[in-house]
Structure formats: C-alpha cells, structure tokens
Amino acid sequence: MLLSNRSIAALGLLLAVVIFGVLGSYILGQFGHNFNQKMDLVNSIYFTIITLSTVGYGDIVPITPIAKLFVVILIVFGMGAFLTALTSISGDIASRRILDFSTKLTSIEEEFTKEQILLIGSGYVNTAIANELKNNKTKYIFAVSDSVIADKLQRDGFKVVQMDLLSEEEIKKLHPDRAKLIVIDMNNPVDAVYVILILGDIAKDAKMVVIVNSDDAERRLSSVKKMVKDISIINPQKEIALELLSNINLNKRNE
C-alpha cells in the first residue's frame, strides 16, 4: 500500500474540513450578507481553499461576527488537519525510501558475502590468511572482538569487522551460511567452542577449520566435532613440531 491507514485517515479528515468550509461558507453566503461578495458554489470552494492554504488574497472576507467565527474555526481545524496529513504522508514517504534503501543494502550485502571466506578471531593464523587473501584480492571478512586490534588491522589495510563474537545475533550479520570456508582462530578455547556451537546452528553446511595452540585445547574442541557436519581441527604448533622431527629423523637415516 502506498499510504498507511493513518495517512488515509488524515487525508479523509482534511477532505472533511474542506467540505465543512465549502458548505459553511455557501450556507452563510446564501442567508444574509455575511461576506462582502455573493457566495455561490465556485466562490465557496475558492474561499475555502484560499483560507486553508493561508494565502488569503483578501478579495472575499467575512463581515459579520458569525462569519468571522466560522472562518476562525475553519482555519483552526484546517491547519490541524493539513499538518496531520502532511506529517503522516511525509512519514510514509520517508519510511518507503528507508525500506527501499534497506532492501538495496541487503541485496548488496548478500552479493558481497556470497562465497566469501570468513575469518573469526584475531589469532596469528587468521592474520596470515587475511594477508594472503588481501594480496590475492579474494573476498573475505575478518571478524575480531577487540577494538584496539580491529583498529590496527584496519590501518594495515585489512577488511575488518569489530563485533561481539559470542553473540549469535552479531555472528548472523556475517551470513556464515553463505561462506565457502570459516576459519576460527581464537586465543580462548572456551570462546572457540561457543562460536562453533553458534555456527553449528546457523551454518550447518559450512566448512569450518578451527585453529588451536595446545593439545589441551585440541582435546576440548574434539568433543564438539560430532555436532558440526564439516569441521577440521588444526594445531599448527604440533604439526610444525612433527614436521621438524620427521625431517630430523629423515636426515639421520640419510647419514
């Protein structure tokens, strides 16, 4: 609907005031010399519109007390009805523009978040990944909770969003269900578990990678693997250590 019920009612009230003005001035003009001119239907319509619009040319004026009282009542009710209609219609137009803008913004946001990589947490692995994605001009969003870290990353040219990562409503704004990959790299494993549980509800089919920095954190997070369809837990320190040991053992065998 183009206009709200309130605006339609306001326009109806304004129309009623116009009809009141036309009929009142016509009746007063027909019975007695209440105006300085003869008030036929055309003059009554003309006088009412000119009065309500506050133009007041002065060519038709009331000359008796009852006519003057009628004009005062007409102006008071007319101005009230006009301002009510103007305010209501302006509100409808503004609301429609805001709605159209929000719809366009949502469309742009959906296109922007489509097939992106979502990095949650400001760990060193996510920072390194973001740096590579930035250099490769790959779509990504880097979500962190610390405002100081967010400001630093933004100054370094990263596409960063500062938000409460433990809030389901906030995480929903990132549209994780449309991400082709989600990497969780948080210093606190308890926070990481909570984020995984949130994502398990709103992004069940998304591929997730969780970065941990200790065997204890790896054991804790392994308990939630069953709750998420596609999740991998990576311990970079452990993998580096194993790779180094493998290289050392290989060198010993070669000797």
Q: What does this 3D model show about the protein?
A:
- Pfam families: Ion_trans_2, TrkA_N.
- Keywords: Membrane, Transmembrane, Transmembrane helix.
- It is a multi-pass membrane protein.
- Its main location: membrane.
- The protein has 255 residues and is of the alpha/beta class.
- It has 2 domains: 107 residues, Orthogonal Bundle (Helix Hairpins); 131 residues, Rossmann fold (3-Layer(aba) Sandwich).
- 61% of the residues lie in helices and 10% in strands.
- It is built from 9 helices and 6 strands.
- Strands 3-2-1-4-5-6 form a 6-stranded parallel sheet, with helices on both faces.
- Strand 4, helix 7 and strand 5 form a beta-alpha-beta unit.
- Helix 1 packs across helix 2 and helix 1 runs antiparallel to helix 3.
Annotation field: number of helices: 9
Largest sheet: 6 strands, parallel
Q: How many domains make up the coordinates?
A: 2
Q: Helix- and strand-based class? A: alpha/beta
Percentage beta strand: 5-15%
Biggest sheet: strand arrangement:
3-2-1-4-5-6
Stretches where pLDDT is under 50 for at least 5 consecutive residues are none
Give the C-level CATH assignment of the largest domain: Alpha Beta
CATH third-tier fold name of the largest domain? Rossmann fold
Query: Which whole number gives the mean pLDDT?
Result: 82
Tell me the radius of gyration: 36 Å
SSE string, helix = H, strand = E? Answer: HHHEHEHEHEHEHEH
Helix content: 55-70%
Indicate the CATH architecture of the largest domain: 3-Layer(aba) Sandwich
For the termini, the CA-CA separation is 84 Å
Q: Name the CATH superfamily classification of the largest domain.
A: NAD(P)-binding Rossmann-like Domain
SS elements, strand count: 6
Basic shape: rod-shaped
